[in-house]
Specification:
alpha+beta; about 350 residues; two-stranded antiparallel ribbon; three-stranded antiparallel β-sheet; binds zinc ion; about 35% helix; globular; 11 strands
């Protein structure tokens, strides 16, 4: 038997409007971007594969019988079931669960109405046909460029196609990893496109796959002669321009990249230009650098309070930031910028 792909987080349940793929090889691979509901959830208690019914929920106080629900010709007639615009009713032989949103089965986040802990992704075949949605993916260049261009050529009836135009391409490299090199080359070429739809979709793929060679090119787009290319309206999200998608992809690359890399150096340059979001990112990734440059960052327009908040995860850096701030103000004023939970520790760190 071929090896299997397993969904991350034990698989995810989705509501009525979430994406539940029908192809057995589709699975949930990422923690960012759209959630793919797992279409092969198995119950480890009764051994059954879990089925789902979109558009149904539990009636108030209702407790539908699992056997009756699974056998019903019309599940809406089952006692305790009612129709629901947001709901999807999941059932195995021993359990019925009403779900209304994207919800991973294993998560560090505790959900109010937790999904059954005895359900989990049972794996997805890695035996994927070359023709996906009618597109011959072995002709990877054509497949990728046609789908990145959006519009009619985009082959996938995905509910989030308008907000994640690059998803089909990312999924291609995930379910057919033997094509990854060809996908990388096609996406990299698409990053030079002057068509905003193509550019946006290629940036989406970079966002999902920060390790790709195409993502390595993102840094170079912040050169003065390149950036204007991205100062055009995002065709998928017209209230933004493409710089937003570029920065979103850059951020995951900054997190992925090592200390001292060109990505981290670009983040530092942007932060020293007053870019608050990149400063917060560095406060988490490189708190000692933020502390070292606290006064320069403040001079660039970032508030003392923002500086303190950005490094609050690293107390020694926070102490260092306050030490720097003290050179231009009293201890009392400097401490006023420190999140209250850390004030005592900072005082102790300063010996004050
Ligand atoms: Zn799964
Ligand atoms: Zn069960």
């Amino acid at each position: 038997m071929d090896s299997l792909n397993f969904c991350v987080d034990g698989g995810a349940l989705v509501g009525a409007t979430g994406w539940l793929p029908s192809a057995p090889w589709d699975h949930y691979w990422g923690n960012s971007g759209p959630v793919a509901g797992c279409n092969h959830v198995r119950c480890i208690r009764c051994g059954e594969v879990v089925r789902s019914f979109a558009g149904l929920g539990k009636a108030r106080g209702g407790d539908p019988d699992p056997g009756e629900l699974l056998e019903a010709e019309d599940p809406t007639t089952v006692l305790g079931v009612e129709s629901s615009a947001s709901g999807r009713l999941y059932a195995c032989s021993c359990t019925v669960f009403a779900n209304h949103s994207d919800q991973p089965l294993r998560s560090t986040i505790v959900f109010l109405d937790a999904s059954p802990s005895h359900w989990e992704c049972a794996g997805h075949t890695t035996d994927v046909p070359a023709t996906l949605e009618g597109v011959d993916t072995d002709d990877t260049d054509t497949a990728v460029s046609a789908s990145l261009g959006g519009g009619g050529a985009w082959p996938w009836p995905h509910p989030q196609r308008e907000t994640w135009p690059g998803l089909w391409v990312t999924r291609l490299s995930v379910v057919r990893p033997q094509l990854t090199d060809a996908v990388d080359a096609a996406v990299s070429a698409a990053l030079d496109s002057v068509d905003p739809k193509t550019l946006r979709a290629a940036l989406d793929d970079c966002f999902q796959r920060p390790e790709s060679p195409a993502s390595a090119r993102l840094v170079s787009f912040f050169d003065a002669d390149q950036l204007p290319r991205f100062e055009v309206t995002d065709p998928y999200e017209p209230r933004r321009d493409l710089r937003w998608a570029l920065l979103r992809a850059l951020d995951v690359r900054i997190v992925w990249a090592a200390s001292g890399s060109p990505e981290r150096e670009l983040a530092a340059r942007l932060a020293l230009g007053g870019d608050k979001r990149r400063m917060y990112l560095l406060g988490r990734l490189e708190p000692a650098w933020v502390a070292e440059n606290a006064l320069e960052l403040e001079a660039a327009g970032l508030s003392a309070k923002s500086l303190c908040v950005s490094v609050q995860g690293a107390e020694s850096a926070l102490v260092e930031v306050v030490r720097k701030l003290r050179t231009t103000r009293t201890l009392e004023v400097a401490l006023a910028s420190v999140p209250p939970a850390h004030v005592q520790a900072v005082k102790a760190g300063l010996g004050a």
